[in-house]
Amino acid sequence: MTTDPQNTLTKATAIEFKSNTFTVPVLVISSNDLDVINDQIQKKIQIAPDFFKNSPIVLDVQSINKNNLPIDFTKLTNVLREAGLLPIGIRGGNGLQNKIAIDLGIPIHSVHNSPVIEKKNLEDSPPKIKSSHSETALNTQATLISQPVRSGQRIYATGDLIILAQVSAGAEIMAEGNIHVYNTLRGRALAGVQGNLGARIFCSDLQAELISIAGTYQISEDMRGIVRNKPVQIYLQEHTLIIKDTA
Amino acid sequence: MARIIVVTSGKGGVGKTTTSAAIAMGLAKRGHKTAVIDFDVGLRNLDLIMGCERRVVYDFINVINGEASLNQALIRDKHCDQLYILPASQTRDKDALSQEGVGKVLEELSKDFQYVVCDSPAGIERGAHLAMYYADDAFVVTNPEVSSVRDSDRMLGLLASKSRRAERNEEPIKEYLLLSRYSPERVKIGDMLSVNDVQDILSLHLLGVIPESKSVLTASNSGVPVILDEKSDAGQAYADIVARYLGEERPHRFIDEKKGLFGKLFGGK
Questions:
Q1: Which residues of B touch A208 (CB under 8 A)?
Q2: A163 CA: distance to closest CA in chain B (Å)
Q3: pLDDT, average across residues A24-52
Q4: Count of CB pairs separated by less than 8 Å, A with B
Q5: Is residue A121's pLDDT more than 80?
Q6: In 3D, which of B33, B44, B184, B190 has the Cα closest to residue B116?
């Protein structure tokens, strides 16, 4: 069997997870009277029917929960669906509403401006905010290596990886974040191993056996034209590795 | 306390045993009480190079197993009374070596020797691992050739991570590069890696360059460490290496091509 590298590459990337930001209209509910809600929705839709047709929508129920107005979330969802809207999320819901939402296949979104009821709790327990911060900080922490990375050694960093000494042929360095090698890179360097497409590799002399960012790789045979003894950076652009001087 | 030196390389046939014999003899000749141990269990060679193969009664494994005392197994060298050889067993294999056993023997030797030279077998398995595990200094013997350089690099990685010093988080093993079988003529025509090429890849302190020399084979076959052949280039190279290891400053020789009579007369420089 012959293995076409191009073919294996397409097979390997049959699916891909990417992060994207979308603008989605949020419907803020401030009454628990379903008839009133239905009535007002219909009126809105009539103004711009094309705009609202099959429009995804996120339900914001903070306001009614704040005023302790109970609402049947299942029925509310039905009202919206009959009006031709597609609810794709709920935010500011209480425990019961969130549970029903999940059962209906509607994801729960977090609220950026916390509701008043919860605000007090947050003030009472600042570590809660802190802990979420330190979680992100953990991922961006850098690992520093000052000894040469010899053939056969492997290094894995959860954040960035900074290496001051040389990386020998046959060594393997991996990072979920960026890789910096302030010396000659002769081994394999794999940045963004958990799929971070924005990860980059920097080194002062590129003689690597293999470089990879978020799974897209290049072997040394493809890097023949690269000038040695020159600092370069490697990044991903349109699924292609770009090797560029950092002068 | 003795200083434990491991002579290692990863690759076979680069000159570990020749180097072990020469270095041990060099240290002993300078008055330091030295022991040299053959770790190549099953492929015993050091006794031949040292010319003591007819006097082997007990071996390293016998001592580890408690079948003989260290003093019974140690063979005093016939050229130098400061030098002792602990031969390997030819009938056993590397599994006969145990970490505790090796540790005990080295500890006992440390009591009344100044230097213990461990002649490592090739490879990175048990024998090689135990030879370097207790080391203080490592002499990495490399030939100016790509596969030898890569194997040495691998060995350096193991020295930095799998030794007792590494496990105890102590000061790391001091690593020295010995470039053997060097031929300036072949480097000049691009057949061989140069000293600079090798140093560029390994970035290691160069202790010395041993030139490719007929005297090495002659010395091995006659069972006399090459360092005793003071007229030979290889013998002088090893003498320089021992001197540098002991802290003397000596200029590097044998790196550049030998000049003929005409070169000497008209070469300038």
A1: none
A2: 15
A3: 81
A4: 35
A5: no
A6: B33
